Structure formats: C-alpha cells, structure tokens
Amino acid sequence: MSGAGERWGEHHRLGPGREFDLVRTMLGRWGDLARGVGDDAAVLDVPAGERLVVSTDASIEDVHFRRGWLSPEEIGWRATTSALSDLAAMAARPLGLVVALAVPDAWRHDVPTLADGIGAAARAGGASIVGGDLTRGRELGITVTVFGSAVTPVGRDGARDGDGVWVTGRLGGPLRALRALLAGAAPGVADRERFARPRARIAEARWLAERGTRALVDVSDGLAADLGHVAAASGVRIVVEGARVPRVPGASLADALASGEEYELALALPANVDEEALAREFAAAYGIALTRVGRVSAPGDSALREAEPRVAVVGDDGDTRVDLPPGHDHFSG
Amino acid sequence: MSGAGERWGEHHRLGPGREFDLVRTMLGRWGDLARGVGDDAAVLDVPAGERLVVSTDASIEDVHFRRGWLSPEEIGWRATTSALSDLAAMAARPLGLVVALAVPDAWRHDVPTLADGIGAAARAGGASIVGGDLTRGRELGITVTVFGSAVTPVGRDGARDGDGVWVTGRLGGPLRALRALLAGAAPGVADRERFARPRARIAEARWLAERGTRALVDVSDGLAADLGHVAAASGVRIVVEGARVPRVPGASLADALASGEEYELALALPANVDEEALAREFAAAYGIALTRVGRVSAPGDSALREAEPRVAVVGDDGDTRVDLPPGHDHFSG
C-alpha cells in the first residue's frame, strides 16, 4: 500500500513477510559483502583527497537480455559488471553499490541466484553492497548504482594530437554470441563466456592511469562508437588501423568495431611511451592484451577531410576506409 | 542491440535518434540543474570532513502509483522526493542524484513533464542531477539514487531512555487520499496535495540535528511502523500518547499512525529541551508543527511488559492501547 517496496537499507531487521524473506535471503547470500544496511541510507567514507565518482545502469528483461539466454546468476553478474565498468572507465576505485530490483512473480525463485551473480561481480570489483530496494515489477529490472573514488578521475576529453589509441583484450565475442542467440543457435563457448561473463577492468584502468592515460572509456557501445565519444569529447579525430584491432577467433574487423558490452577499455596515451614494453608489462600483470590500434589526429589534419567522421578506420592497404557501424537506438529498433 | 539504453552520463552529445532526443529534452528541461554529464560517470566532491550518505529508491507503475492518480509531473516529483527524504532521515545535505528511467511507449510523450517533476524536486532539495539511464520498459519505472553528506549522519539507533519522541507536520493526509483513490473517489484537495506533493524535510532535519537529535527516521511506512524501526535499532520501547499525534483534519488516530509516504520526520531528542520553545522556533523557521508525541521507555520498564510490541500507543484515558497497524508487504497483497 504505502511504502510498497522493501528497501533493505531500511527494513531487513523486520518481518515477517515474503519481501522481508527475499531481502534476508539476499543478505544471507552476500554475507560480509553487504554492509551498512539497517538505516534510511548507507554511510561511506571517500578517502581524503579523492573525488567521488558515481554512475547508474539499468538492465531490463527483453531490453538488455532475454530470459533464455543467460542464467539468473549471469544476469546478476552482467548487470553489476556493466555498472562497475563505468568506474573503470574513469579509473576510479569502487567504494560501494546499491541495487534496485524489480521482480515479477515468475522470477521470485531466481532471486537467490540473481543475488549470487550480483554479489560475485561486486566482490570481483571490490565494491560493498550498501543498500537496495526490492519491489514487484512486470519485468525483471536490475538498476545498479555504483560509487567510487579517484584522486584524478580520467575522463574522455583528454586525447591530444599524436596520442596513441589503445584497447585492452580482444573484441568481437559478445557480438558473435548475440548474433547466434538472435538466430536461435548456440554461441561458441568462448563467445558466450565473453557475453555472459564480462569483466570490469578496474585494476587495469588504474594501472593505465598511473602510466599517463589521458582519455579513457569502456567499450560498451562498440569500439568505433566509443572512440567516437572520446574524439567528440576531446575535439579530435581518431584514425584506427584496422589490421591492428585485436579480435577473438572468428570475428571480422566489422564485428570487432561494432561489438558492444565488451567492457574492455579504450584509451589515449602520449606517443612517447615504449609501446612494446608497455604491452608486455600489461600482459604480464593482467593476462590480457594491450594493443595500440591507432592514433589521435587533431582537427584540420590534412589526412582527414572535414566531411569525414570523427573516427576513421584505415584498412590493410593503408587506404581503404571501412564503413563504421551505426550507433544503436533501441527505441527505434 | 548491445548497449540498449541511453545513459546521459555518456551519450548526450551524440545523436540523432529517438532516445537521444528524449535525453536532450530532459537535459533541456533541467538546464543548470543537470551537471557533470558527458562522461562514463559523474564526478562530485564530498566536503572535507564529511561522510558520504547514499540511498536508492524505485517507483514503479501499478506498484507505487497508478497512472490516473497523479500527473506525470507529480509522479516525477514524488519519486524524487521519496529518495531525497532518505537523506533528510540521516540529516544529510544532498549533493546530487542519478535517475534511471524505464519508459513504455505509452509514456514517451510524458517524459518532458516527468522530467519537470524530477527537476523541481531535485531543485527543492538542493541536489544536482548528475547522471542517468533511459531505457525502454513494459511499465514506467523511476529509480532515483541520491548522494548526500554530513559530518555526523543521524541514524536510528541513538534513542535513549527518557528521550522525547517528536514528529514534524500533521499526519494522515496521504492515507486519506489513497483510500479515496482506491475507492474511485476524489480525495479532498489538502489530502491529495499531501499525497501528490510531499516535501523532503532536508533543512528541517539538519536544524533538528543541530539541536541534539539522537535518532531520526522519515515517516515512509507510517508513524507506528517507523517508530518501530527506531525502537528496534535503538533497543528501546516507545510509548506514544495518542492524543498528541498531530493529524490533518478528518484523520483518525489510526489513520495518522498508519499513513505512509508522509515524508515527515520522527525523532528522539533528550528530555532536557525546552519543549515549548523548540516547537515555537521550529514553526517560525519552517511553517510546520513540531510536536512531542511520546517518550522512549527503556527495555524492562515496568509499564511495558515483555510480550508487548516495541511501540505502544496510549489512548486519551491514559490506559487504552490502540491496535497498531500491521506493516505492509506488497508481494503478499
């Protein structure tokens, strides 16, 4: 009637009732990961001298995922990782997160495993779960809001003429998995893993920030689109060398450029780094590739005419331009 | 396809597309109130020496409101005020908020007025809108996550034996309005206003904290239930004098005890305050009542037997006990 929701910031000491039970179940699954619950709001401390970084991210059934594609545990993991990746994209360290869950009756029995996925992703990201809100809904909705901190958050607007443009990992897996799922086929194991179990590159982002990263973004819309965001924010153009874009086995260049929800990092670093040493050290530290895929080209560069897009992809012959994938707009889709 | 949502933390410089247009429309309505958008996450500063206070609150169509009951502007106001009220309940000062909106096609044309309501409530609370996420949904969902700060947030666990228990405003309006709406009748103008246009008592809470408030909660579940939270967290019992509970015209004592989503404050203050002077100063500052409605009674107080609830309401004759309204549990309802 009135409150009509179960905020476990507020009510977990109370009961009985089916909502209380669900909240208790989740808190039980999370154990020490859940903290600060039991009041109207959670209290956290931002380390002295650091700035607060916040982002919110909703994952909704039949918009962001379909029930048959992923296990509840994977849905929880993915929704939480997607939010945490926005902290990585600022080179921020996670402090905590809050989760608002809208749960249809058909999903009530999956709440414990959803909670497991949320908890596993939070733990992997080093974020405590400090509050939440559980309500009924006609479709499953998971809205994760993350809080982190950094002395100097790294935005998108710092790319400068001549910078190297880099990307972590290998791209194309999530798009290949999605394509198979949409066609009713089983994705390859490796592609499915990249789709269902992405990683938020938290530690990697901080390592890269310490080494001079000037602009940083996570690959959520596809490398071409996300580099477009960097280029627009920085007022530059970016030339990607197609042959250098790291791809998972079987992925075309177009796949690698368009594949979203990768949660890899794309970044601009000054040109004066030792490229081989940097890639070697990164791979040794994190077990994934760090690859220079292109360069920043300032506006007015004669190689790029005014009418061209902010991101150009140069083919193997050094001249062919590859068509860029369009941005997506799911209200139109 | 991939990203399948429009985070205006990320994309508002881009376009075209129907989602971009909706986000631009909202940002246009908010003007200077929206800030820090245009990156993966927003960056805020918590004042030195203050702690971060966070809470998340979801408002979902047909769970928290029905379309015919409220205008879109009121729905936006109410969802945002509900979240901000959790900062008031900690005596925290709002820093900012993020909004995740799930919008069905039937609501798309209402997004500008929803945004007006969200913006008006944020402005009233002194919170900037620092990010958000716009997605499709089968039902309208507004998840507002608020960030505030306080040197010493006031929790629920500080009530002590002998403290006075106080409440702001007059209670019962939202329940009376809801009862009328559920019966298909038009609520009274004043009751409807309390239901549709609640206020988050931000400034009031800080004023009260400065005057020694030891435990604080907002009245979201109903005074009896919310005082129950304070009593449980503080390990005390609370005796409410029924005749002292301030009610709106027409409300019974039971109404005033059960009415939720009031967003008034309930609090415990040491007994040594000058009660008349405090109420007078508060009314002069904020134009609403501050009323002592009862006292904290420590566990073991002989006036309260072990089997009794943590909150007892004593009737006009000083002896009659009033039945307490049950907590609500909308999954069971």
Question: So what's the overall shape of chain A?
Answer: globular
| Span between termini of chain A | 36 Å
Tell me the strand order in the biggest sheet of chain A: 8-10-7-11-9-12
Count the DSSP helices of chain A.
9
Instruction: Show the largest interface.
Output: A-B, 93 and 94 residues
The portion of residues assigned to helices of chain A is 25-40%
Helix/strand order of chain A, N-terminal first: EHEEHEHEEEHHHEHEHEHEE
The class by helix and strand makeup of chain A works out as alpha+beta
Say how many strands of chain A there are.
Answer: 12
Most strands sheet of chain A: 6 strands, mixed
Give the low-confidence spans of chain A.
Answer: 10-16, 327-333
The whole-angstrom Rg of chain A is 21 Å
How much beta of chain A, percentage-wise?
Answer: 15-25%
Explain what the structure shows.
The structure is a homodimer of 333-residue chains. The first copy, chain A, is an alpha+beta fold and 333 residues long. Helix content of chain A is 31%, strand content 23%. Chain A has nine helices and twelve strands. Chain A has helices at 18-30, 72-88, 111-125, 173-182, 189-196, 202-210, 223-234, 253-258, 275-286, and strands spanning 6-7, 42-44, 51-60, 93-103, 128-136, 141-150, 164-168, 215-218, 237-241, 265-269, 290-297, 311-314. In chain A, the strands form two sheets. The first copy, chain A, has a six-stranded mixed sheet with strand order 8-10-7-11-9-12. Chain A has a five-stranded mixed sheet with strand order 1-5-4-6-3, with helices on one face. In chain A, helix 1 packs parallel to helix 3 and helix 2 runs parallel beside helix 6 (202-210). The longest helix of chain A has 17 residues, at 72-88. Chain A is globular and about 65 Å long. The first copy, chain A, starts with 5 loop residues before the first strand and ends in a 19-residue tail after the last strand. Chains A and B meet through strand 1, helix 1, strand 2, strand 3 and strand 4 of A and strand 1, helix 1, strand 2, strand 3 and strand 4 of B. Strand 2 (42-44) of chain A pairs antiparallel with strand 3 (51-60) of chain B.
